[in-house]
Amino acid sequence: MFFSIIIPLYNRPQEINELLESLTHQRFTAFEVLVIEDGSMHDARTIVERYSDSLDVHYYSKPNEGQGFTRNFGFARAKGDYFIVFDSDCLIPPDYLSNVVAFLKKTPLDAFGGPDAAHESFTPVQKAISYSMTSPFTTGGIRGNRKHLGTFHPRSFNMGVSRKVWERIGGFKLTRLGEDIEYSIRIQASGFKIGLISEALVYHKRRTDFWQFYKQLHFFGRARINIYKHFPRELKLVHFFPAAFVCFLMIVAGLNAWNAIAGAGCTLAFAGNILLLAYATLIFFHAWARTRDTWVALLSVAASFIQLVAYGLGFMQDFIKRVIVNRR
């Protein structure tokens, strides 16, 4: 079994250095690495070439097309039986490929995904963001979880597909805005077997500050509507939760403002504040139980609220623009 690890790269030379360094410690060594520079202004050729003695690594540079089509560029040049896609901000544990091989020998899959977690070297903000993206009390709870709602869709930060999948249905049809979900849906619709390998864990840095995180999650909210335009049945009730949370926040804020201006004692405002406090408290103690770090737990409350608000606003923006307005 031979693997081709495909890494799209856009203006992140330091990240690819850390990712390639982590790959030099893999216990299973039958793999190649393809790094595809997607029109970056700050290329990483020199950094990648440093690893030519320790990895079977290949560097390519091409005009900017977005991550989906850049992965296709790598697929077309890969030699592996399986293609594994990582985001450039991931760190890969030494037993990643060993765990994948052991699983696939027992349970053959045509495509797979794995969970993500925070590495001990991450900053407190990155650990908080990781919590919000994996917590059962946010939209992140369905990722990397055997008991997730609905069908499991591998995500492109940690995604593997067999050569058979590539040869039969090709690669990504979208280059951004939910391209990995669209691909997963199409793989499954073609009769291929998809599964979660819970031992195929990666450490995913995601974003380094809350503003970057907000922009990323706003994009994710918009991506869900893009998926809906291609696969209407894939829009589930759970996807409306962040938008409902945003509406609830706006109502509570309005009631509190009315109380402050009119001097009223609105019980609905009080009830809304209690619910928000209870939710924040639940997140805090759950995050603390996971991390045993009070500061990370406090930041996790902020990260969770940012996640829901950003996703909800992005979802609402494109739902109104692309679904409601376009129907008129």
Describe the structure.
This protein is an alpha/beta fold and 328 residues long. The protein folds into two domains: 3-114 and 154-207, Alpha-Beta Complex (Spore Coat Polysaccharide Biosynthesis Protein SpsA, Chain A), CATH 3.90.550; 230-327, no CATH class. It is 50% helix and 13% strand. It has eleven helices and ten strands. The protein has a seven-stranded mixed sheet. A three-stranded mixed sheet has the order 5-10-7. Strand 2, helix 2 (45-49) and strand 3 form a beta-alpha-beta unit. Helix 9 packs across helix 10 and helix 10 (267-291) crosses helix 11 (294-327). The longest helix is centred in the last third of the chain and has 34 residues, at 294-327. It is globular. The mean pLDDT is 91. InterPro entries: Glyco_trans_2-like, Glycosyltransf_2, Nucleotide-diphossugar_trans. The chain crosses the membrane at residues 237-258, 270-289, 295-314. It comes from Parapedobacter luteus. This is Glycosyltransferase, catalytic subunit of cellulose synthase and poly-beta-1,6-N-acetylglucosamine synthase. GO terms for molecular function: transferase activity.
CATH architecture of the largest domain, please?
Alpha-Beta Complex
Q: Beta-strand level of the residues, as a percent range?
A: 5-15%
The CATH topology of the largest domain turns out to be Spore Coat Polysaccharide Biosynthesis Protein SpsA, Chain A
Report the top-level CATH class of the largest domain.
Alpha Beta
Keywords: Membrane, Transferase, Transmembrane, Transmembrane helix
Domain Glycosyltransferase 2-like: 4-167
InterPro entries: Glyco_trans_2-like, Glycosyltransf_2, Nucleotide-diphossugar_trans
Protein name: Glycosyltransferase, catalytic subunit of cellulose synthase and poly-beta-1,6-N-acetylglucosamine synthase
